[in-house]
Task: inverse folding
């Protein structure tokens, strides 16, 4: 049951984006080989500084001296299997926020088991779609069951839900063309990691990151002819995004249940 | 000797493309690290769904629950050497079509030997250029020698030849600027794999895939200023390609030899 | 102390670029997973032919039958650690020029130690920024100390310095937006490697490559709306770059100290 009201305005998102651009936080991304290039460009476009190594000998150092960590389970090869727990522990020990994105766990039993093990490392934020959550939490668990105070959840889909068991937000921004480009979801996870460096509440940080990414996606899709031109347009829109655009487009709903609690 | 006439019209290609967009088949791509990002976007742009893992523990599962498999031998590291035969066998056991692209085997003896071994796995379609075929089949073998009923061959070049020993087609679509962009050939292999999910005859499926890719390439090259703008234009053109464009541009010749046989 | 005057004109750069486009030299790039795709497209855009494998069994063959080698230490996983010294030795034994780019060695002690070891392999050109050089040569070494006749140095930054202990050039071309796109520095290293195939003096070759890359970057940045559109514009600008553009934009200074020596 969500019982706590959430107040998140476009002005707050714009202020956090401004702060992010001022700080230029380092975001270390242990992500899949397909998404690395685009993710690095997305991280740069929002004003943060990416690093991407997955080398076992290096990953703890990079995770420690970065300001946030993204872990994405795509192309989960042997090196990544060893590097990921090391990176997550190093980041947690250094007090860094961690986003976990269990890409396509519904397509691979071995990957799903690996992901379940990582939940024990208590990532700050779990980002997944409905299929992936269904594989991680079998037995028809509801969003309320899966999100709790130790595990903020951002569920992507036609609408995005973000909650921590006490608060819950719904986002209605975005555009279908984003799904015709590879790694947009993966890169969105890196944006959420970047916002966790300027906003300590994971629900707010995730909502800020997703709003920024999806609103930039709307602007880009309106300018693009197809998925090819969407990519440069999206990076430009992220780079140029301003408070007026956020204010004019934000579609965020507080899903608080009950009253007066 | 090619003895069987082939009937392939732009309407048939348009119908197959429509079917492909309806079905949204899953195409698993074990491809090189340079081509992964662009290939995933090409697969999405034609309406299919890519997956790209090369992890040894995962690749059989992904190959089995996909609808077609692309194997590309670029950046042939140790993981790929183990994963590729596993993926090919899993796909064949599950009845999935397999496209093999022996990238740059003429530049590496060890890669060439590996590729020759893979021919024993009987890929549905072998896609290669003249240099690569020269390395795979030394001793001046002709196209007719190399293509047979167990091995449909798509030979790319200024003109593309597609044959299975009985039928042979020549395609004259495409644009030189496509060669100034990395991974266009690699991504073309994934398009052919996608068409194998809607057209069972490998000669027809390969010709459909190559025609779609090369005609989109022509449209894109006419709009592009150089190889940089070609990339978004090509993805947009693939996404927007319609029956009229196919009809107006298709250059396909049946190379049947002899008469009345 | 720099004592030898350097004469490098835009006409010489244009002539070398023309020669490069005529020759279409093969540049083998052992580079990081993030940069591979963009680097391959940059190499193609200037008229050279990239290959990118890092596989241990293949890398010596590719390095030997290429015309130049780029080694970039990003995403320095176990395979790269083994492949890189093999590639460097094979290239040197075959008389090929080698560019070493010790990406982010200031972020990883283990990577820095590896890079210091590679300096013993005597790369033709070391390309690095100030942070990276500070990690490689601790104790406040000056540019003059770090560059010597066995080690030409290209130090990137707001201004670029290129020297070999006897000659020194300063380049003032480029645009801040280039830093908002991933792998521009990495790809610039590949361009320098390509110019080493047409100009034997590493100082001149590095200055030619950097001028070409940075002037194309200026042209692209003036046409781009942000970092997204910069990528296609940059590749187009490299492909279309001509003598007039080089002549109108080149900002190159000879930093010769003293007179008459």
Result:
């Amino acid at each position: 049951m969500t019982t706590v009201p959430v107040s998140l305005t476009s002005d707050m998102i714009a202020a956090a984006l401004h702060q992010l651009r001022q700080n230029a936080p380092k975001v270390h991304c242990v992500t899949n080989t397909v998404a690395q290039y685009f993710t690095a460009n997305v991280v740069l476009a929002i004003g943060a500084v990416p690093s991407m190594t997955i080398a076992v000998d290096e990953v703890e150092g990079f995770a420690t001296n970065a300001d946030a960590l993204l872990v994405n389970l795509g192309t989960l090869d042997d090196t990544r299997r060893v590097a990921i727990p090391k990176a997550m522990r190093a980041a947690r020990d250094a007090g860094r926020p961690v986003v976990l994105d269990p890409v396509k766990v519904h397509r691979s039993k071995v990957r799903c088991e690996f992901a379940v093990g990582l939940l024990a490392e208590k990532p700050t934020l779990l980002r997944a779609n409905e299929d992936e959550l269904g594989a991680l939490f079998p037995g028809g668990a509801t969003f309320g069951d899966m999100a709790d105070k130790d595990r903020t959840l951002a569920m992507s889909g036609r609408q995005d839900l973000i909650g921590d068991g006490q608060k819950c937000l719904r986002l209605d921004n975005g555009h279908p063309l984003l799904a015709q480009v590879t790694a947009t979801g993966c890169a969105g996870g890196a944006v959420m990691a970047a916002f966790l460096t300027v906003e300590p509440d994971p629900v707010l940080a995730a909502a800020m990151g997703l709003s920024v990414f999806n609103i930039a996606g709307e602007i880009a899709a309106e300018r693009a002819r197809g998925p090819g031109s969407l990519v440069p347009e999206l990076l430009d829109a992220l780079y140029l995004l301003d408070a007026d655009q956020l204010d004019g487009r934000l579609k965020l709903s507080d899903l608080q249940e009950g009253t007066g609690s």
